[in-house]
Amino acid sequence: MHMQIDDLGSQWSQVAAFTSAIDTALGKWLVDVHRIGLTEYRALAHLTQAPDKELRVNDLAQKIGLNQSSATRLVSRLESKGVARRDICADDGRGVYAVLTPEGEALAREVRASYDERIGELLASASAEAPHVDVRLLGTALRQIADVVTP
User: Fold this and answer.
1) In what order do the strands lie in the sheet with 84-88?
2) What is the helix, strand, coil percentage profile of the chain, to 5?
3) How far is CA 142 from CA 11, 19, 123, in A?
4) Which DSSP string do the residues of 37-75 spell out, in sequence order?
5) How far apart, in Å, are the Cα atoms of 37 and each of 12, 41, 72, 110, 128?
6) Structure pTM?
7) d(C-alpha 40, C-alpha 118), whole Å
């Protein structure tokens, strides 16, 4: 059975709306509980996994889905909170790195477990409102998608 392109577009729009709703709720929760925005937390999470706890700002932008200008402002916000700092690339002097501070690493570690738990709660809540959504299958699909998009 082949899915029509129109059906695929409609279904993708539903996935995007679902993701947006989860992200909105997650972002509000992060600000209320941990006083950090969703994009800021995602940046910290990427920095904690990076070699030497640093990434070129361009690479960080790509991982989070921001343009260069937005990523530069993001790093400025992280710096003002003391959770990251900038460093110049020693190789060419033009590249700028975002470097995780010990405070940033501690904050990322503090938020991580409750962040994952909150995502589970939001997904469970969504499946209660839409009983045809199987959260276990969704979790499996998310892991498979992550495997495809993660280099």
Assistant:
1) 54-56, 96-100, 84-88
2) 70, 10, 20
3) 16, 11, 12
4) -HHHHHHHHHHHHSGGGEEEHHHHHHHHT--HHHHHHHH
5) 26, 6, 15, 14, 26
6) 0.81
7) 17
Token code pair at residue 23: 């992200």
Ranking 41-45, 90-94, 106-110, 138-142 by mean pLDDT, the lowest is: 90-94
User: Tokens in use for 90?
Assistant: 């020693």
The string of pLDDT tens digits covering residues 40-55 is 999 999 999 999 999 9
- CA-based R_g, the chain, Å: 18
Q: How many CA atoms lie within 13 A of 139 on its CB side?
A: 12
- Classify residue 136 as exposed, middle or buried by CB count within 10 Å of its CB (0-12, 13-18, 19+): exposed
Structure tokens given for 117: 């738990």
